[in-house]
Amino acid sequence: MHRNRNRTRGFTLIEIMAVVLIMGMLIGLVGYQVFSRVEQARGTTARAQMKMIEGALEFYRLDNGRFPSTDQGLDALVRKPSIEPVPPRYNPDGYLKEDPLDPWSNPFEYQQPGVQNPRGFDLWSLGADGQDGGEGVDADIGNWSDEEA
Q: CB neighbours of 43 closer than 8 A, spacing ≥ 6?
C-alpha cells in the first residue's frame, strides 16, 4: 500500500521542464512556418487588390475616356477630381468605396502613364517595408509582374 501512494504523487520538476522545453521548441517551429505563410498571403492579397483597382481604373477610363492622371491619383476612384483633367462623366457613386491600402496599411502607388506600362499605368505596393525596392517580403509588387514574392 505504501508503494502505490508514492506512484500517484505527480510529476517531477525535471519531467515538467522537459515537457515545457519540448512544447517551446514545437511552438517556435510552428510559429516560424505560420509567420512565413502570413507574409506570403499578404503578397497574394496585394496582387488581388491590385486586380480590383485595375478593374476600377478601367471603368473610370470607359466613363471618361482616360485614366486618372498621376496628380489625381487613386483618390480619383473615390472622389471626383477637382484638378485638370476633370472627368466629364464621373460616376456619382465613385469607383471604389474608400482609398485602397495594401495589406501593410500603406497606400498603393500609381503613375500614369506608367514607366513599366507606357500605354497604361503603373500600380504597385512598396511591400512590407514601405520603401522602394527590397527583397523577399520587402520587395515591391507591381502590375507589370506576376512573380510571387
A: 103, 127, 137, 141, 148, 149
pLDDT tens track of the chain, all 149 residues?
Answer: 555 555 566 778 888 888 888 888 888 777 776 666 787 888 889 999 999 999 999 999 999 999 999 999 999 999 999 999 999 999 999 999 999 999 999 999 999 999 998 889 999 999 888 888 888 888 899 998 765 54
Please name the helix (run of DSSP H) or strand (run of DSSP E) that holds residue 8, with its range, or none.
none
Contact 111, 70 (CB under 8 A): yes
| Cα 46 from Cα 63, distance rounded (Å) | 26
Domains of the chain listed by start with CATH number: 43-142 (3.30.700.10)
Torsion angle of C-alpha atoms 90, 95, 130, 51, degrees rounded to 10: -120
45: its cell numbers:
492579397
Question: Exposure pattern of 68-81 as b/e (b: 16+ CB <10 Å)?
Answer: bbeebbbbbbeeeb
The secondary structure of 112-142 as a DSSP string is SS-SSSTTS-EEEE-TTTTSSS-SGGGS-EE
